[in-house]
Structures are given as C-alpha cells and as structure tokens.
C-alpha cells in the first residue's frame, strides 16, 4: 500500500534592511503572529509550520515596502470551487524588528492569535478575528488598541494615554496598565483588572467584572448585564463618590466612614471624603462588592 503524507512542512524567510522602516503592517490568514524586537538592525520574517499537501503551493508570504512602511501579508490562495477533505493548517509568522520607536504598528489576523512584546510605537493596534491577543511590555505614545471576535485578550505592562481592549467572545485580562483612560469590554466573557493607574471603563454583557488594584487613581465606570461587579483596593480609598444601581442585584460595601445619600438593596449613592474620584456601577442580574 502506498503511503500518503498527511502534512507538508512550510518554511519561508525574508530579511529586510530595517533602518529606514518606521511603520509595520502585518496582515495574515490562518496564521499565528509573533512580533518581538531583536538586536539586529535588520527585520527578520519567518513563516514556518505545516499544512495539508494540497495547500503547500497555495501559501503566499508577500513582503513589500512603501516608503518607510513595511507590509507583510500571508495568504492562502485556494482554487475557486469546492474543496473536499480535511484541511490542516498550522502556521506561525515570526517578525523580529529592531528595538526603536515606530510611527505605527498594526497586526491583523483573520484566523490566528497575536503575540507581541517589548515594542514601542506612536500607535499600536492588534486585531484577531479568531484567536487571542497576548501583549506585554508595550509603550504606545498616543493609543493602544486590541480587539478579538472569538478569543481572549491579555494585556500586561502596557503604557499609553488611552488603552482599548474589546473581546466579542472571550475574557479580557488587564495587568499592570499605565494610562489616562482604559476601556475594556467583553461581550461574552469576564473583564479582570489587576493593577492599573488612571480612569477605567469596564463593560461585560455576559460575564462578571473583577477590578483589583493597589489604590484608586481615577474614575471607574463598570456595567455588567449578567454578572457580578467586584472592586478591591489594597489601600482604602479616601476620596470618591459612589453611585450603584442594580435591577436584581445587591450591594455589599466594607467602607467605614462612607456617607450615604441613598441606601437600598438595589441602590447605593454617597461619598467618601471630598469625592475626588467618581465610581459608577450598574448591574442587571448581579451583585456589587466593594472591599479594601
């Protein structure tokens, strides 16, 4: 009996002189993307993995440069018509770049995750249609954006004036963020924040919100349609106003010295001290806990 290979190995490599490149745009299909710096002045691009034999000649990696912008695309060019049988695609695109400030860094995958670390750009944006976004130790001078349609988002040690994280189906995990404003939304999943500075807006349509930080450093807006909201601070906040409303959820506060204006099962309003920061919490079918 003749044997048939189940998969074919793929390896493509491209080296680009990186001194004149100040913008990166990566767009892939069915590929994991790993973006990181290295010591070289060149940009090293590697595509490797394995695919079904019938797809081997359909994999394209295009690297083009327009002015100071480098564009990297990975495509699977299938023949028109029906495709029979199971297709196996397991690809990873590694892009290593010189460690410097970039005007813009953009990564978008239609089916695959994004892993990025130790980068600096004026604008940074990561999008994964079907996969996770995992970003760490990144500085964006104007804004940092991350979005997934089906997959979680994990951000750790991100610094930017504004940070956006939106997962349509997956958990948003935020750790050690430094920003003026943080916006986090999970349409179907939890929003978890662990240590941040600045204002934070958190929204979950189907899941809970758990925010824990060393101290209160800005305003908080949290809304959970179906889940609990938990706020916890290591250091007791001394100056804030609080407004909570819940359709069928209750509030549990551990705050000595809090001055109540309204206190009911589903409604809390009042302040601590001068009310420097504003906390607004809304739940539909979940409780609200505030602890220090």
From TrEMBL:
Annotated Gene3D superfamilies: 2.160.20.120
Give start and end of each DUF4097 domain.
22-289
Q: Which InterPro entries match?
A: Toastrack_DUF4097 (IPR025164)
Superkingdom to which the source organism belongs: Bacteria
Q: What is this protein called?
A: DUF4097 domain-containing protein
